[in-house]
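Severity: low
Component: inverse-folding endpoint
Summary: output formatting inconsistent between runs
Steps to reproduce: submit the following structure tokens with default settings.
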């Protein structure tokens, strides 16, 4: 197993650790900071595994499947937890998670037709803003400025989620055509 795939597995294994510290107060006020650090490290492995895989020609079928799945698990589990903590609107989480299901289904249809749909820049921007949003919501500074920044990040993350969905669908509409 190559390094990018090991990083993807590490990211997946970090999710329960992240959720444990986010959802408990096991070490008091330090719990949220440990959760933030684990989330940031997991997020960085997303960038690192893709960079290494492309740079050193280590792209594998396992990585093509597991990398986006690990990303979705990390971001979606964080958002679901934040909804439960009353830090994020369920509507925002539903919009973002629904987009992930739609694109995953779309990629499955494309795969059945022998088409590989690569990640777009819109999708990458979307992921980055979602991760920044999650970090700010976990930190929960509580100041007026922090709340404004959180709300701006939420609006941008939702907008990029919708834009990236439309971008994927428009650029790859032929995938849905019968017989292709």
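Observed output (run 2 of 3):
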């Amino acid at each position: 197993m190559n390094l990018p795939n090991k990083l993807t597995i590490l990211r997946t294994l970090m999710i329960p650790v992240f959720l444990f510290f986010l959802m408990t107060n096991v070490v008091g006020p330090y719990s949220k900071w440990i959760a933030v650090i684990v989330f940031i490290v997991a997020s960085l492995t997303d960038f690192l595994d893709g960079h290494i895989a492309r740079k050193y020609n280590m792209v594998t079928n396992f990585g093509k499947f597991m990398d986006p799945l690990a990303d979705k698990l990390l971001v979606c589990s964080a958002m679901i937890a934040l909804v439960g903590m009353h830090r994020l609107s369920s509507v925002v989480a539903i919009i973002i998670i629904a987009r992930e299901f739609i694109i995953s289904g779309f990629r499955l249809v494309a795969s059945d037709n022998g088409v590989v749909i690569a990640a777009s820049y819109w999708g990458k921007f979307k992921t980055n803003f979602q991760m920044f949003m999650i970090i700010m919501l976990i930190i929960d500074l509580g100041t007026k400025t922090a709340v404004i920044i959180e709300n701006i990040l939420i609006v941008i993350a939702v907008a990029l989620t919708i834009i990236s969905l439309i971008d994927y669908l428009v650029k790859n509409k032929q995938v849905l055509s019968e017989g292709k």
